[in-house]
Write a structure and sequence with these properties.
This is Integral membrane protein. It comes from Streptomyces luteolus. The protein is of the alpha+beta class. It has a domain of about 90 residues. The chain contains 5 helices and 8 strands; from the N terminus they run E-E-H-H-E-E-E-E-E-E-H-H-H. The strands form 2 sheets. A 5-stranded antiparallel beta sheet has the order 1-2-3-4-5, covered by helices on one side. A 3-stranded antiparallel beta sheet has the order 6-7-8, with helices on one face. A hairpin with a 4-residue loop joins strand 7 and strand 8. The chain starts with a strand and ends with a helix.
């Protein structure tokens, strides 16, 4: 698991490198695998029942594609002072060094909703930050700058909760690796 950094010009000019979520490719593969298995099972079941026709094949293919789109995770990228997510149709970038709001959004899964001083918004899965120390470091540096500048008025508690959770995960990992747990 090597850290991937790249020189690029397609992100904010203050950043000289970017870091990608190294687990994204595996999640993409899992989404494709689930969609493919569903398509295969539906096709095999229809074939065994003698009902497979071209319209039904198109329907099952559409269901497989729909499942893939639903399961497709956004790709998270970060650099000094910014974090971005790229989904199927759009890319969202938030300046972490100009955050005005960080709050938890509860739903099917818990998310962080980030809003910066320029009006940009982004929803982020906190597990991405938890499992990648480099992404967390860049995010935390940006939020610290926002706090120091007096911009982050709503959300310090959410960032502190996430920080405590990451610290707890780090301690558990150290114990597990050292054989103390």
């Amino acid at each position: 698991m090597g850290r991937r950094t790249e020189e690029s010009t397609d992100h904010p000019p203050t950043a000289n490198h970017r870091v990608h979520d190294p687990h994204w490719a595996a999640e993409l593969r899992d989404a494709a695998l689930c969609a493919g298995v569903l398509l295969a099972l539906l096709t095999v079941a229809d074939t065994a029942a003698g009902r497979l026709t071209l319209p039904r094949t198109a329907l099952w293919t559409g269901l497989g594609v729909l499942l893939f789109v639903v399961l497709l995770p956004p790709r998270v990228t970060a650099g000094p002072g910014w974090v971005a997510t790229r989904g199927l149709l759009r890319k969202r970038v938030v300046r972490t060094d100009a955050l005005v709001s960080v709050r938890w959004v509860d739903g099917v899964s818990r998310r962080l909703l980030l809003r910066d001083a320029h009006g940009a918004r982004l929803e982020l899965d906190p597990d991405v930050l938890i499992r990648d120390p480099e992404l967390w470091r860049l995010f935390e540096q940006g939020t610290r700058l926002s706090t120091d500048r007096g911009l982050l008025l709503c959300g310090r508690t959410a960032v502190e909760q996430l920080s405590r959770r990451i610290d707890g995960e780090t301690v558990r990992t150290v114990f597990r690796i050292s054989g103390l747990r």
